[in-house]
Amino acid sequence: MSKSELFEKGLKVRKEVLGEDYVNRSIAGADEFTRTMAEWSTEFCWGALWTRPGMDRRTRSIVNLAMLGALNRPHELKLHVKGALKNGLTKDEIKEILLQVAVYCGVPAGIDAFRNAREAFNEVDAK
After folding, report:
1. C-alpha–C-alpha distance, residues 26 and 32, integer Å
2. Where in the sequence is the signal peptide annotated (predicted)?
3. I need a labelling partner for 8 at 20 to 30 A (CA). Which of 18, 45, 52, 75 fits?
């Protein structure tokens, strides 16, 4: 599969999970400095990984929420909370994932993750 095919597959999945408006704004906002990273993440994260048959999107969302919470990456966590809702997770399931983060990665990481998840829920509910 060529790079452009993998990018196109990734772009499709990325739009389905994160929303077409968000992805289009993200791509339009890329400049000469950030464009390579945007293309790389679309191609490899979304095209090469998220399209693999070994795990469904719901499970990938669970794994991502746990990792992003553990790494304390608020912007990405918030984005992936919204994607997790689209992938079928409930708010209660997300809460349980973030409680797991708090126990295994530290309460400060859990508190930040809960704060960001609540912001994501509020944004989704406002639409």
Report:
1. 13
2. none
3. 75
C-alpha distance from residue 42 to each of 37, 47, 74, 76, 102 (Å): 8, 6, 19, 14, 29
pLDDT in tens, 87-96: 999 999 999 9
Token pair for 105: 């990665």
Cα torsion through 55, 57, 60, 66, rounded to 10: -150
The residue extents of the domains of the chain are: 1-52, 55-126
Cβ pair 110, 101 in contact under 8 A: yes
Per CATH, domain 55-126 is 1.20.1290.10:
yes
